[in-house]
Write a structure and sequence with these properties.
The complex is a heterodimer. Chain A is an alpha/beta fold. Chain A has 24 helices and 20 strands. Chain A has three domains: 2-179, Thiamin diphosphate (ThDP)-binding fold, Pyr/PP domains (Rossmann fold); 192-353, Rossmann fold (3-Layer(aba) Sandwich), CATH 3.40.50; 369-540, Rossmann fold, CATH 3.40.50. Helix content of chain A is 37%, strand content 16%. By secondary structure, chain B is α+β, with helices and mostly antiparallel strands. Chain B has two domains: 18-98, ACT domain (Alpha-Beta Plaits, 2-Layer Sandwich), CATH 3.30.70.260; 100-170, 2-Layer Sandwich (Alpha-Beta Plaits). In chain B, strand 2 and strand 3 form a beta hairpin.
């Protein structure tokens, strides 16, 4: 069967089981958009290529399946570099197809030419420039294999226009052996000796903590984690990337670690004598000053990426492997500590002294952002997926949203990409149309990518957006208040400009506003009653509210700033 | 710490704690950029780098990289390198366990006044003359990095010497325990 390269590309995506592509056409990718008309693949036409990338990420985070985006050459491709970087930092499986100028024009500064494989070399797991139509099936199959196996990540396939227009005899790689990846092996076998050493470290631990990272979700190890934690009674902390990997309501759960983690999670790690690290990478936002982090702890580090083992903290036991497989091996070996009763009584005292808290909102407003999040969550149906942008609202959501199940949290961790929330929520809703999807956003973030609500309305993707409008770039404001003597530099945005309600309406969405707790409850009910179009709520929240607890940047995790109301009585 | 700064100032000496990575890569366009980009991105210092098609297959190339082991832990360099999809195999050769050789080419202006002393130097160094014209000679030395260093220093007194070095190649020394390859992968 003779196909054009463009047809072969679409057919290859179908072969991979792709149901949705997020994209925006242009000159160099034009040939591929023609056979798309005849395909069963749903194409979501975005308003900016960055939106396509974040939607594909949201889709991937909510479903566990790779997200797919397709854009044109030049600026189309550079516009998607931010989502690619974001996916690289968060190990999100993504396949991005970019159009490229014809092979005969490459290197000649042709119209809309850009060296996107060169640009993305450092922010993709791998990328391909396809030089013949015959190679398209292999490149696509390899891209999906690379994106989804081992440590997942973004893979870019750059397709020159003449390659898309030339013809090939259809074929498809029958298996991994035909992908011509002699240097790639997704998984190394577990080192039994290391597993045995882990078992003995666990057996002698008195103050162990399970430090659970995003890799636990990527390897779908949440059942294994729960079984291991429940059998051993070891306390669990889940990083920002691992919210939902362990139920918040579980008695073994301590919360999130790090800069804005719970006091008990941070302190348990600091006092720990054994950290069992599952698919986490000792990010600086978790460790604070690394030399002062968990000084007495031995470390069992389990990660699929061997370069993470010892990158920041030298492990006592390093197990390269998939978290689920490693946990099953630890279970099979019956790894268990002795009684943790003393440890737990210490932890319970920290939990009692320093729960997450905030001041009650005045009846007349402004709202407390944490209160808004708790009320949204209390009124959200079971299984709701929550997305966020980056900043204070993200930290409050991570703290106050009651995560109970995996893949219910869609956020930008490593890269900290403002504007991630709206498009990622759209992607999540496309991947899980059966779920309610809330995007909890900041006013600064919302202004970066809000135009994708036009996409959401026109494609029939009814997400709900809660803007925690404090009229500031709030996290920067918080740092300027706390560390720059309240000298506020370029952080004020205005609560009224733009008018978020009118803006929402202009984009075909329902726009609502709440300025006090009563209105807040009413508009949440109103928003929950709408399921056919996107809803945007402008929540007017207190601009001076700060995220606590906080470990200041560069400080030791021993120096947790708790909420002001908790400071006097205990210190 | 008095870590020598590669590429900064003369004379350039091999880093005190250097390691040799012999990296088998797929012979595809852009692979060298991926390797070099990784080193730049992660702040690993390359002291020298040599690349050519590898034994037997045109499908693979071998990159021999001398790494400044002070700039990053070797296992981190190897671990990150190993993640490059086009990298097929990495052998880490400790200098003590390596046979290292390098090629030096130098074109030296000569006249009656300096020819005798120059020929003395070349003779002592074991370099050979491979091209001659009335005003200059081109010499080569294939030898240990140290012998190339010595010849380079000896030629410093001669004006306008144009000197090129390839960077070293290395293989494990025979008759000792050959260090295990740090990556178990091999070409299929």
């Amino acid at each position: 069967m003779e196909l054009t390269g463009a047809q072969a590309l679409i057919k290859s995506l179908e072969q991979q089981g792709v149901d949705t592509v997020f994209g925006l056409p242009g000159g160099a990718i034009l040939p591929v958009y023609d056979p798309l008309l005849d395909s069963s693949i749903r194409h979501i036409l975005v308003r900016h290529e960055q939106g396509a990338g974040h939607m594909a990420e949201g889709y991937a985070l909510a479903t566990g399946r790779p997200g797919v985006a397709m854009v044109t050459s030049g600026p189309g491709s550079t516009n998607i570099v931010t989502p690619i970087t974001n996916a690289h930092m968060d190990s999100t499986p993504l396949v991005v197809v970019t159009g490229q100028v014809a092979t005969t024009s490459i290197g000649l500064d042709a119209f809309q030419e850009c060296d996107i494989t060169g640009i993305t070399m450092g922010v993709t797991k791998h990328n391909f420039l396809v030089r013949s139509a015959h190679e398209i099936p292999r490149a696509i199959a390899a891209a999906f294999h690379l994106a989804t196996t081992g440590r997942p990540g973004p893979v870019l396939v750059d397709l020159p226009k003449d390659v898309a227009q030339s013809t090939m005899e259809w074929w498809y790689p029958a298996g991994v052996d035909e992908l011509e990846l002699p240097g790639y092996r997704a998984l190394a076998p577990l080192d039994e000796g290391e597993v045995d050493r882990a078992v003995s470290l666990i057996a002698s631990a008195q103050r162990p903590v399970l430090y659970v990272g995003g890799g636990t979700l990527k390897s779908r190890a949440t059942d294994e984690l729960r079984a291991f934690a429940e059998r051993t009674g070891i306390p669990v902390v889940t990083t920002l990337m691992a919210r939902g990997a362990f139920p918040n309501s579980h008695e073994l759960f301590l919360g999130m670690p790090g800069m804005h983690g719970t006091y008990s999670a941070i302190t348990a790690m600091q006092r720990s004598d054994l950290l069992i690290v599952l698919g986490a990478r000792f990010d600086d936002r978790v460790t604070g000053r690394t030399t002062a982090f968990a000084p007495e702890a031995k470390v069992i580090h389990i990660d699929i990426d061997r370069a993470e083992l010892g990158k920041i903290r030298r492990p006592d036991v390093a197990i390269q492997g998939d978290v689920a497989t490693a946990l099953r091996a630890l279970e099979a070996a019956g790894a268990a500590p002795a009684s943790l009763a003393t440890w737990w009584s210490e932890i319970r005292s920290w939990q009692a002294a320093y729960p997450l808290t905030y001041d009650e909102a005045p009846v007349d407003g402004p709202l407390r952002p944490q209160h808004v999040i708790e009320t949204l969550a209390a009124n959200a149906p079971e299984g709701t997926i929550v997305a966020s942008g980056v900043g204070q609202h993200q930290m409050w959501t991570a703290q106050f949203w009651p995560f109970e199940e995996p893949h219910s949290w869609v956020n930008s961790g490593g890269a900290g990409t403002m504007g991630f929330g709206v498009p990622a929520a759209i992607g999540a809703k496309v991947g899980r149309p059966d779920r309610t999807v809330w995007c909890i956003d900041g006013d600064g973030c919302f202004q970066m990518t809000a135009q994708e609500l036009v996409t959401a309305r026109s494609e029939g993707i009814p997400i709900k957006v809660a803007i925690l409008n404090n009229s500031y770039l709030g996290m920067v404001r918080q740092w300027q208040e706390m560390f720059y003597d309240e000298r506020y530099s370029e952080v004020y945005l205005s609560p009224d400009l733009p008018d978020y309600v009118k803006w929402a309406e202009a984009m075909g969405c329902v726009g609502l506003r709440a300025t006090n707790p009563k209105e807040m409850r009413d508009v949440i009910d109103e928003a929950n009653a709408i399921d056919d179009v996107p809803v945007v709520i402008d929540f007017r929240v207190d601009a001076t509210e700060k995220v606590f607890p906080m470990v200041p940047a560069g400080a030791s995790n021993d120096d947790v700033l708790v909420h002001p109301s908790q400071r006097k009585e205990t210190r | 710490m008095n870590t020598p700064e590669p590429f900064a100032g003369e004379p350039v000496h091999t880093p005190v704690r250097h390691h040799i990575l012999s990296v088998l890569v797929e012979n595809k366009s852009g692979v060298l950029a991926r390797v070099a980009g990784l080193f730049a991105r992660r702040g690993f210092n390359i002291y020298s780098l040599a690349v050519a098609p590898a034994e037997r297959h045109a499908r693979f190339s071998r990159i021999t990289i001398v790494v400044d082991a002070e700039s990053a832990p070797l296992e981190q360099v190897v671990g990150q390198l190993d993640k490059l999809v086009n990298v097929v195999d990495i052998s880490d050769i400790a200098p003590r366990e390596a046979v290292e050789r390098e090629l030096l080419l130098a074109t030296i202006p000569t006249d009656v006044s300096n020819r005798t002393s120059l020929l003395d130097i070349l003779g002592l160094a074991g370099a050979s003359i491979i091209d001659v014209d009335p005003g200059a000679i081109t010499v080569m030395l294939a030898g240990t990095p140290t012998s190339c260093d010595e010849l380079e220093r000896a030629l410093e007194d001669h004006a306008s010497v144009e000197l090129h070095r390839t960077g070293r190649l290395a293989v494990p020394r025979l008759g000792r325990d050959v260090p295990p390859a740090t990556s178990e992968r091999g070409p299929r």
